[in-house]
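Researcher: Good morning. I'm working through a list of sequences from a screen, and I'd like to move beyond sequence-only analysis. For each chain I'm collecting a predicted structure so we can compare shapes side by side. This is the next one on the list. No need for commentary yet; just the structure.
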Amino acid sequence: MDTNYGKQEVQEKILEIACEIKHLCEKHNIEYYISDGSCLGAVRHGGFIPWDDDFDMIMTYENYKKFAEVAKKELPEPFFYQDTQTDPNYRSVFAKVRNSDTTFIEENFKHIKMNHGIYVDIFIVVGVPSNAILKNLQRLSGFMWFFLQEFISPRRNKLKKAICSAVFGIVDFLHIRKFLINRCKSFYLSFPAEKYDVWSYSMGKFNYNQTTMDAKIIGRPKDILFEGITFKTVEHPHEYCEHLYGDYMTPPPEDKRGDKIHAEIFDTNKSYREYVNI
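Model: Good morning. Structure tokens for this chain:
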């Protein structure tokens, strides 16, 4: 791997993917929002957080389903819509759009035979019921969906590894993992955002409480500049960033910024196929 390039080159490839998603959404009237660190970066830096190497979007489930349908048909090469249907070995509970002519192999997933191109994450926004029992069931079903679909067994903690191995061993022995995943997923997604006053969405780690907020904060998609390009973001980006990050306008100390690329192997010029046997 050529190491003469780094974060800026990865960010450029990520931005190309984000623009493809934006184009499809505008073409088909699909609502989306740039979210999380990407929203924060747009507000605080006018684009990428300088030390960041990812890009996040959110969509309500109805828009997410519509985007999945058109992306599978219309994304041009080398872009690839990745979910558990298009890439059966894919482990996440949310979709990614990847550039298949690039490489971004993360440590936790390097042993999995799947598309490992540079990517943009797309998370699903759902409604949160006001009934406490239903809310707790939704949170539990979301956690179990994430745990059964995506969880990587701890490598350093032997006790946790043993417990996880035992749980998955029983589930797989009974041949019920797929059944449980489908039931948990179905219940978690059964609360359409459009019908509720509180919204939530799952991220790379399941943090239901952190991403649960008044629907008015996300609201209607609003224009925002990101690296000089107009994207859509949440209706109230300042309240949104404050909810997620607190004092979001103050950057973290330099030793907390994670300046290194978080992939174990990355390459903006070569396909992941040249690094893994797929």
